[in-house]
Design brief:
This protein is about 25% helix and about 35% strand. The chain has about 220 residues and is of the alpha+beta class. The relative contact order is 0.14.
Length: about 220
């Protein structure tokens, strides 16, 4: 993003409306400023009214994800996912991935929480898509998972965990991203499972578990 566009967004982030003369830096040519202002308008981030420029609803959300430093760089945030725990006869409903970045590894069924969708709605959808089951789902807590390798963060996900009861087989999934299996996780080799699976299972088995698990 051009520095002029960052400047416009930063000023409007702290003001309801700003006139052209208040928003344009003195050192910037008027035509150049208008060009970049129009780029932000095309993106739907700002709009003009008789009082001047202001952020749109989308623009307000956009600047919330930017740092408040001079550069207004985008801040990387954890990925939000939903995860489902289902247990039957001492075995867990697991998912063996065919798709990267977890290809060949085994996890509890999980998937991305989509923008504008509730975590429960996404959990129901992910359970059905990945395993073919529907169930009564109950939110049981959150897991904050930061995966580090060689002192570098390779993944950071915030997991909304749901417990599944009264499973009902609805259909056979297409198997495109993986396949579901019933297995006892401790019997799986460490290299077979995704990061943190053992800790999540221990957390789930603990009747006094806290509402947030950090792994």
């Amino acid at each position: 993003m051009h520095w002029i566009e960052r400047h416009i967004l930063k000023v409007l982030a702290f003001n309801d409306t700003k006139r052209y003369s208040e928003l344009k830096p003195d050192s910037v040519d008027g035509n150049l400023f208008q060009y970049h202002a129009k780029q932000l308008e095309k993106l739907g981030l700002i709009e003009r009214n008789p009082s001047g420029y202001r952020l749109t609803s989308a623009g307000k959300v956009f600047v919330a994800d930017l740092s408040q430093t001079k550069l207004m760089n985008a801040r990387k945030t954890p990925r939000s996912v939903v995860m489902i725990v289902a247990k039957k006869n001492h075995k867990y409903l697991l998912f063996k991935w065919k798709r990267q970045p977890y290809r060949g590894q085994i996890s509890l069924p999980f998937g991305r929480q989509l923008y504008g969708r509730s975590s429960l709605d996404c959990a129901e959808e992910q359970l059905l898509l990945k395993t073919g089951y529907s169930a009564e789902l109950r939110f049981i807590g959150m897991v904050d998972s930061i995966n580090q390798q060689d002192d570098k963060i390779v993944d950071h996900i915030l997991i909304n965990v749901f417990e599944a009861k009264k499973l009902n087989s609805i259909h056979n999934p297409d198997g495109l991203t993986g396949e579901s299996i019933w297995q006892d996780p401790p019997k799986l080799a460490k290299q077979e499972v995704v990061y943190g699976l053992d800790k999540i299972i221990q957390w789930y088995e603990d009747k006094n578990r806290s509402s947030l698990l950090n792994i």
